[in-house]
Design goal:
- Strands 8-7-6-9 form a four-stranded parallel beta sheet, sandwiched between helices. The protein has a three-stranded antiparallel beta sheet with strand order 2-1-3, with no helix packed on it. Strands 4-5 form a two-stranded antiparallel ribbon.
- Helix 5 runs parallel beside helix 6 and helix 9 packs across helix 10.
- It is built from ten helices and nine strands.
- The two termini are about 20 Å apart.
- A hairpin with a 5-residue loop joins strand 1 and strand 2.
- About 35% of the residues lie in helices and about 15% in strands.
- The radius of gyration is 18 Å and the shape is globular.
- The protein has a domain of about 90 residues: Rossmann fold (3-Layer(aba) Sandwich), CATH 3.40.50.1100.
- It is of the alpha/beta class and about 260 residues long.
- The structure holds zinc ion.
- The site of zinc ion (ZN) has 8 residues, from loops.
Length: about 260
């Protein structure tokens, strides 16, 4: 059962169809968000229902796809991403004034970073839409995640990384069979190369903020934090901004809940 109603521009509110690959808003180039029938979801999902998932069921329920009613599909390409531990700090929280402080250990995701959530979700949707080639500019971890999920889905991954990309990431790109181009310059130069080749090569560009689905994967971090705290929203969340998609996802999750 899928509860997606439409894609909607976060800037001008224009609607876009959710049944085909989309990039940004056709009217104003704003980011498209997936909209759900939250009233219908509220009738079937609650903390008790969610608490029973991922205990004995198949792999999708032991991943971020546990929140499947709030995801853009219920047939994921999953490598077991998400459901990472929330570790209570022993000393740091006390040093900050006696409050309880937890760290979400996203290093336990497949390919070792939270990028697995966003790209796992994006590759899932592009696989459903029949996309054959995906390109990404990356400084490291996003490329590893894209390479792994594309390998799982049977999609060509085209990775553009600066020449000084960490060797561990480069090894992962190659291990997962991605087509790698090392660029003399920064990630912005890599993004230019993806833009230049997009039309000619038939790549779907999964750059930050250029498609609707990476944020859908990232938002599961928000659901997990609240569930792991016993369905309590924390007083304060510290979140590294990076490209901004994870931060948007945390906000989106809490608003939806
Ligand atoms: Zn718009």
């Amino acid at each position: 059962m899928n509860y997606v109603t439409e894609l909607q521009c976060s800037r001008c509110g224009a609607s876009a169809a959710a049944d085909r690959p989309q990039t940004v808003c056709a009217q104003c180039a704003g980011s498209l968000y997936v909209r759900y029938d939250l009233k219908a979801i509220a009738k079937v999902v609650n903390p008790k229902v969610l608490g029973c998932r991922g205990l004995v069921a198949g792999e999708a329920e032991r991943s971020m796809w546990k929140y499947r009613e709030l995801m853009p599909t219920d047939t994921p390409v999953t490598l077991g991403e998400g459901q990472t531990p929330l570790v209570q700090t022993r000393r740091l929280g006390r040093a900050m004034g006696g409050n309880r402080l937890y760290v979400k250990d996203e290093g336990l995701n497949p390919t070792g970073s939270f990028k697995a959530r966003g790209l796992g979700c994006a590759v899932t949707m592009l696989h459903q839409f029949g996309v054959k080639k995906i390109a990404i500019p990356t400084a490291g971890n996003a490329g590893s995640a894209l390479a792994a999920y594309c390998a799982a889905a049977g999609i060509e991954a085209h990775i553009f990384a600066p020449r000084d990309v960490p060797k561990g990431n480069l090894a992962e790109y190659n291990f997962y069979g991605a087509k790698v181009t090392l660029v003399d310059g920064l990630i912005s130069d890599c993004a230019k190369r993806v833009q230049e080749g997009r039309e000619r090569e038939g790549w779907y560009d999964v750059s930050t903020m250029k498609e609707p689905y990476r944020v859908e994967g990232k938002k599961t971090m928000g659901y997990e934090v609240v569930e792991q705290l016993g369905w309590k929203v924390p007083d304060v969340l510290f979140y590294p901004t990076g490209g901004g998609v994870g931060l948007m996802g945390m906000w989106m999750a809490i608003e939806q809940m």
